Amino acid sequence: MSQSYDTVLFETDDKGIATVTVNRPKKLNALNDKVLNELADVFKAIQVDEDIEAVIITGGGDKAFVAGADIKELRELDNRSGRMASQKGQQIFQLIEDTRRPVIGAINGFALGGGAELAMACHLRIASENAAFGLPEVGLGLIPGYGGTQRLSRLLGRARALEMILTGKQVSADEAQKLGLVNSVTDGDPEEAARELLGKILSNGPVAVRSAIKAIYHSDHQNGYQVEADLFGELCETEDFIEGTSAFLEKRKPEFKGK
Ligand code: CO8
């Protein structure tokens, strides 16, 4: 199934894997207001579509994942509209992070500024060898505004986040992996590598996978242990739990129903 937007391609395959492609290749997929609105629409649709098991986000063309927020639009902002634009982007990226199905960023080129922030809003990131990451906002007299100061600090630790953001330097895919910014680097197509990884993830109990994402993101909150215990208890009453444990004891492969 595919749905058409002007700047975002949205397709779902027969395994329930949705691919969301930011598609403005002539502008290196820069995030203008239209792209952000369409991303919000797509992810609102994903949240309520029970047939979608996982999501891959990637960039159109062969040069960029997303080269940042659209600098032409940024130029028009003042204090009030700038704050609002930052909050709007933060909310959309939070919507992506809150997807209770695995979201993998297939980073196929430049992931700069808002593009690096979009990558960080994904649960997992796989980069192509030519990918490059950076938060160059200070060079434009700005700071990251789509949650990047927060997510980069959580992913890399404060010292490394400070170094990347204060220098605005770009790092290669290999360096990004060493820093913990991406999970892996592939010499092939990162979208294919994401599908391969999803093959492993989606063979597990679907309710457990969703609960694990929720619990892990609660490690940022004070009640993380409580959320973990509550979800653990809920899982103990699922059909998937009965099936997973029975399959182990009966020495066979489980057939999960996602219930
Ligand atoms: N915004 C708008 N247009 C862009 C952007 C961008 N971020 N990036 C590239 N483009 C456009 C170029 O202007 C060019 O358009 P045209 O052909 O019409 O001149 C086209 O894409 C191709 O780009 P280049 O010719 O520059 O391609 P190169 O291969 O020479 O260079 C680079 C590639 C190095 C990626 C270069 O394009 C570049 O430096 N781009 C800007 C990167 C950047 O600074 N990104 C950060 C932007 S700031 C940001 O993301 C803030 C996020 C938080 C905002 C919160 C509140 C709103």
Automatic annotation (TrEMBL):
SUPFAM superfamilies: ClpP/crotonase
InterPro entries attached to this UniProt entry: ClpP/crotonase-like_dom_sf (IPR029045), Enoyl-CoA_hyd/isom_CS (IPR018376), Enoyl-CoA_hydra/iso (IPR001753), Enoyl-CoA_hydra_C (IPR014748)
Sorted UniProt keywords: Lyase
Signal peptide location: none
One Pfam family, short name: ECH_1
Gene Ontology MF, one: hydro-lyase activity
Superkingdom of the source species: Bacteria
GO terms, biological process: fatty acid beta-oxidation
Similarity field: Belongs to the enoyl-CoA hydratase/isomerase family.
UniProt xrefs under PANTHER family: ENOYL-COA HYDRATASE, MITOCHONDRIAL, ENOYL-COA HYDRATASE-RELATED
Protein name (database record): Enoyl-CoA hydratase
